[in-house]
Each structure stands twice: as C-alpha cells, then as structure tokens.
Write a structure and sequence with these properties.
The protein is mainly beta. The protein folds into 2 domains: 119 residues, Carboxypeptidase-like, regulatory domain (Immunoglobulin-like), CATH 2.60.40; 273 residues, 6 Propeller (Neuraminidase). Helix content is 3%, strand content 44%. The longest helix is centred in the N-terminal third of the chain and has 11 residues.
Length: 408
C-alpha cells in the first residue's frame, strides 16, 4: 500500500524543523581534523620541512614558482657577525624548489644584489613578478626595518635595478612583512608607526601605477589589537586575510588567524591546534590553492623558527530543508537560489514534488537564500554556517501568498 504523500511530507517536515543543526557526536563519525579552536572553515595536515636547521627559516613569497625564504643560515651568505636581538647571523634571502607534493628543498642564495651584510626581511612581488618590495634593517638598528622597491631588468636573469626606499618608510618606526594583493593594487604590511592600536598593527596602502604607495590605512580594531599583529597574507581569491597575532585570545604567543575582507564579517578566527600552539606561529602563506607554509618556534623544532608545510581542505556542510506555504503545505516547482556574502549567485534549484532543497556550503561562511514562486511573495533569508561540529543545517522556508487587489 502506498504511503499518503501528506504523511511522507509530515515526516520530512519533522526532520527539518527550523532551525536545527545535525551534529557529529563522536570522532568516529567526524572525518574532519578540526578542534574547538578551529574556526577557519579549513582542516589542516601539517608536516615538518627537511630544510630546517639550527637557524631560523621563515617563508615569505613565491617567485618564478620558487619559494623565497628568510633565513640566517650562511650557505653562500655575506658578511659575518651575530644579530644581538636574535643571537643568530644576520638574515638573508634564499630560494627553494617546490615539488608537486608542496615540499620545499634545495635552498640557494637568492640574489647578491638584494642580499647585503644587513638583515634582509620579508619580500613581496607584483603579479607580473617584475617588481619586488622588500624590507631591510641595518646592523646598527636591526629591529627597525625599512621598505624598498626594485624592478627586474628586462631580459635579465635576476638583475634587480632601480632600488628606492618607499615614501612610507621612516627611521622612527619599522615597516615589515609586505604582501601584494593578487590584483597588484594594494600592499599590506605590519608596522609600529604612530597611531597603532598596539605594538604592531596591520596596514594597507594603495599601489599607484608607478609603484609608489598611497598613505597607509590601518585595518582597524576588528583586526588589530593592543598586542602585536603581523604577517598579512591574502587567500588566492582575495577574500580572506590570514595573519599572526598575539591578541584575539590566542592559544599562546603568536597564533595564525583568518578574517574575511568583507566589512561586516571581519572578526578573526583561529586556525586551531593543528597549526597553532602555545608557542609562536608566523608567516602563514599559500603557494597553491590548498598548500603552503608557515613557521613556528615550537619546542621540539630544530632551531629558533622552523618551517612547516601544510595541506588544507575546505570543510563542506549541507544546508537543506523544504519550502512550504502558510498552511505548511509543500510547494513543488519552487526556485531556491543560494548567494554568497557578496551577493553572487552560487547555485539555484527547483524543488520537486517533495518541495525539498539541498545545497553544499562551506563552513564558517555567510550566505543568503531567495525563494521564488509565482503567486507568492518573494522570500529572502540569511544563513551562517558557523557551527564547527555541524554536518547538516536544516531549515524550512515558508512563503506567503500574494494579496491581490480583489481581496480588498
């Protein structure tokens, strides 16, 4: 005997009473390597790097498909002496090969034009890789980094020319950790310049067509804290900012956080204990869509700051439910549209006889839904996938009939 449709629908409606969340109750049911601290929307697999030594190794940028690393190791290095603030040799730039597995190897001296007897710091490149922004501190004031720009001589093999110190540099404060946006229009950096919320804050400057920089803009109190905030790095799509901070209730020392660029959802979120620890985690960066590096001074490491590589996976969840009218009767042939936080359409579905819809969504994102059906008022709803342990979000969407002029 066939089950009456209304009975089937009633069962379905009970399953998706709004709003509810289906949770993962034990680790055997949870394939995601996440923890209560991880609010990033990503799961991480972290591996040691074979290039670590007793000195510091810190990833910085990618140039010509090679990893540029800041290190005080002396392979092909220039000059002698120890930086009194780090108790290591003065730092220089190295380039490393990256294989298909995301492993870095074969460190070589990057450039005898850029590397000097002083401290060379973090670097960034324009999208066409013809312009490099880099930082350097003099031996006599090794904690104070200034920002420079050079261009790659046309048809040369690594000949950097026309070095200039940029107009936002000042001997009274330090400019560190430059990072160029993927469209080449903005330079992010950290600085302890006057007017910060704490020690070091994150800033952004617009890049002019000639490579000069506009007046820096502080990223504001949602990002910056009364503590140090450093090492900005944008995701490949430019929608998320990764950075290191001693604030935001860090697990310990510097933790790595992620924040959305969108104005209304900038609250930083911790990457969790697969990445962060009670020690310092810095210089998080992607080399591909899902692989990259960061450094940490974990106690079990080889030296001061060791480099680690990571593989990340997007955590996907489900948003599903039914569309009903005011009498809670199912509405088949209804269009349900999913949008991202910026209003871009991601997917649309037309409900079947069961009035059911289902979308795959990313964890820790904001979405909106629009529901359209002839004879009914347009329905809009906002949705946030902000549950770490959720597999499925369930929500009933209720439409109201349009009131015609004949009803008055």
């Amino acid at each position: 005997m066939k089950t009456p449709f209304l009975t089937v629908f009633t069962l379905l409606l009970c399953m998706v009473s709004s709003p509810t969340v289906s949770n993962l109750n034990d680790e055997s049911n949870n394939p995601k390597r996440i923890d209560k601290h991880n609010k990033s929307g990503l799961e991480f697999y972290v591996y040691n790097s074979d290039v670590n030594t007793k000195y510091s190794e810190i990833p910085s940028a990618v140039f010509k498909n090679k990893l540029i690393m800041v290190s005080s190791k002396k392979i092909g290095g220039l000059g002698n002496g120890i930086d009194k603030h780090t108790n290591e040799p003065f730092s220089e730039l190295f380039c490393l090969d990256i294989d298909a597995y995301g492993t870095a190897k074969n460190p070589l001296f990057f450039s005898r034009i850029i590397n000097t007897k002083d401290n060379e710091g973090q670097v960034a490149f324009s999208p066409d890789e013809q312009t490099m922004y880099f930082t350097r501190s003099k031996r006599e004031n090794s904690r104070n980094y200034q920002l420079y720009k050079v261009v790659l001589e046309e048809n040369s093999n690594g000949n950097w020319v026309n070095e200039v110190e940029l107009n936002i540099s000042n001997d009274g404060y330090s400019i560190e950790n430059p990072h160029v946006s993927f469209d080449g229009t903005e330079l992010y950096f950290s600085s302890n310049m006057p007017g910060s919320f704490g020690g070091y804050d994150l800033y952004v400057s617009h890049i002019n067509p000639d490579g000069s920089l506009e007046q820096p803009q502080n990223l504001g109190p949602k990002i910056n804290t009364q503590f140090d905030d450093k090492f900005p790095h944008l995701s490949k799509d430019g929608k998320k900012l990764f950075f290191s901070s001693k604030g935001h209730n860090a697990i310990g020392g510097f933790d790595i956080f992620v924040s959305s660029i969108s104005e209304d959802i900038k609250t930083p979120r911790n990457l969790g204990t697969e990445v962060n620890s009670e020690f310092d985690e810095i210089a998080f960066m992607f080399t591909t869509e899902d692989q990259g590096f960061f450094s940490s001074n974990k106690e079990e490491g080889e030296g001061s700051f060791d480099m680690y590589r990571f593989k990340s996976n997007i955590i996907y969840q489900q948003l599903q439910g039914v569309v009903v009218n005011d009498q809670e009767k199912p509405l088949p042939n209804t269009t349900v549209v999913l949008y991202d936080v910026d209003g871009n359409e991601l997917e649309r579905q037309t409900t079947g006889i069961d009035a059911f819809y289902s979308f795959k969504v990313k964890a820790y994102e904001r979405y909106s839904l629009k529901v359209l059906k002839k004879g009914f008022e347009k329905f809009e709803s906002r949705f946030s996938s902000y549950k770490t342990d959720a597999l499925i979000y369930k929500e009933v969407l209720k439409l109201s009939s349009k009131v015609s002029a004949l009803d008055h």
